[in-house]
Write a structure and sequence with these properties.
mainly beta, 11 strands, 2 domains, 189 residues, 4-stranded antiparallel β-sheet
Length: 189
């Protein structure tokens, strides 16, 4: 077998990158700072899963469940509806109609039955960061859609005991051409 036939720049570069990544001590000895070799320095597909030494990896968090909520709709005169309930947390869609001609305002809100909870939410309409979320405070907004029509949301809420709900999805003010509030979430817990 002619070894020279198998040598190419790509093979040599990927082998060098692999040695640098997996041989951290060698990289430090070569003058590279620890953790200084990352995705920008490694070509695509030059390091694969079989090249990673599993014993060097930390603990990967586990997920008990992933669920998609039903699409919830609230029309004129209906007020609000529950999108999801998990442990002490309830996510609600609230709809306010301001005029016959405009889209309604749709609010995706979360409430808790456990004092000293925390909720962090981001959406294209703003965000919430409440590290002391109590029952007496009512709801926290995690997304609002008005004339914009559709807002993406993502949130995480946790109790002091570690009960958690986390999700992402949307809240909208139109559904299939109708002026109606709607929401749907993908939840991880």
């Amino acid at each position: 077998m002619n070894i020279r036939h198998h040598l190419s720049f790509a093979n040599i570069a990927s082998a060098t990158a692999l040695v640098l990544v997996l041989g951290g001590g060698v990289a430090v000895a070569a003058g590279l700072a620890p953790n200084s070799v990352g995705s920008e320095q490694i070509r695509n597909n030059s390091v694969t899963g079989k090249d990673v030494k599993e014993s060097t990896l930390g603990t990967v968090p586990s997920v008990d469940s992933v669920a998609v909520s039903k699409r919830v709709r609230v029309g004129r005169g209906q007020g609000s509806a529950t999108v999801h309930r998990s442990g002490p947390f309830t996510v609600t869609l609230r709809c306010e109609f301001i005029s016959q001609r405009l889209n309604p305002n749709a609010y995706l809100e979360i409430s808790t039955s456990a004092d000293n909870s925390a909720v962090i939410a981001q959406s294209t309409s703003g965000g919430t960061n409440d590290q002391d979320f109590d029952v007496s405070e009512g709801t926290r907004e995690i997304g609002e859609a008005g004339e914009s029509g559709l807002v993406d949301v993502e949130f995480t809420a946790v109790t002091p005991a570690g009960e958690m709900v986390s999700g992402e999805g949307y809240v909208a003010t139109r559904f299939n051409g109708s002026r109606v509030c709607s929401a749907q979430l993908i939840l991880v817990g």
